[in-house]
């Protein structure tokens, strides 16, 4: 990735979204929110408003820059490597799926490696309980400013496949840009760290949801306000019984 591309992308495109977001956030309900919550709250169920576009593009670009480094590439290690083997078969197969997602993303968008813990599938179908297809790595593509955050996935790697990310260096050869990104720029250390954090967060959340579910079930079995019938004899009745004996 050339210096010119980085300068244009960072200083003009990314900064443009930061400036626009700062200009419209003042005095709104979003002003005190963390960026991630701004994205989730403003998604508007797939009908995003300009606020979402700026917030999500800032989040996506921050995430993208952080998963690059000079002299990157190479092979992942540890748990990430094991999960890539388990869920894709090999690192080459993962690279193929990333390439395929990049080349089939019509128009502008993003390609992601994400940890799908549970809950939502693409298209907002609700799957609130873990299933055999959950707790695994997935490759997904998103249009425009959307990220897998809005599907309740944990993003691990972002590749910007908007034309401004590669056209100066590779013209319309998006696949060449993605190959160079994977071979020379990707920071597997950052992806590993994100995976560990995602698994911890997902596990804590699952525990909380299980506790909540258990509490709901207990409440259904013993509704609050329902009198518990005490079938034991009263003290008077016990005295009468004694006298009879
Ligand atoms: Fe971009």
UniProtKB/TrEMBL annotation:
Mn(2+) binds at residues 9, 61, 160, 164. Its EC number is 1.15.1.1. Pfam families: Sod_Fe_C, Sod_Fe_N. Transmembrane segments: none annotated. Residues 76-192 form the Manganese/iron superoxide dismutase C-terminal domain. GO terms for cellular component: chloroplast nucleoid. Belongs to the iron/manganese superoxide dismutase family. Destroys radicals which are normally produced within the cells and which are toxic to biological systems. This is Superoxide dismutase. It comes from Rhynchospora tenuis.
């Amino acid at each position: 990735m050339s210096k010119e591309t980085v300068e244009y992308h960072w200083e003009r495109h990314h900064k443009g979204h930061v400036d626009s977001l700062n200009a419209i956030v003042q005095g709104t309900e979003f002003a005190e929110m963390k960026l991630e919550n701004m994205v989730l709250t403003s998604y508007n169920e797939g009908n995003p408003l300009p606020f979402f576009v700026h917030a999500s593009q800032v989040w996506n670009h921050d995430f993208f820059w952080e998963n690059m480094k000079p002299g990157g590439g190479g092979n992942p290690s540890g748990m990430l490597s094991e999960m890539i083997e388990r869920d894709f078969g090999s690192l080459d197969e993962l690279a193929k799926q990333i390439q395929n997602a990049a080349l089939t993303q019509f128009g502008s968008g993003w390609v992601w490696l994400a940890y799908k813990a549970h809950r939502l599938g693409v298209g907002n179908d609700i799957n609130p309980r873990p299933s055999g297809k959950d707790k695994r790595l997935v490759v997904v593509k998103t249009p425009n400013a959307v990220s897998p955050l809005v599907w309740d996935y944990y993003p691990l790697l972002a590749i910007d496949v908007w034309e401004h990310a590669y056209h100066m260096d590779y013209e319309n050869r998006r696949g060449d840009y993605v190959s160079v990104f994977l071979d020379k720029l990707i920071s597997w250390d950052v992806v590993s760290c994100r995976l560990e954090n995602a698994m911890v967060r997902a596990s804590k959340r699952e525990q909380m949801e299980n506790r909540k579910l258990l509490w709901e079930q207990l409440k259904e079995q013993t509704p609050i306000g329902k009198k518990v019938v005490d079938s034991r004899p009263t003290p008077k009745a016990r005295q009468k019984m004694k006298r009879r004996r």
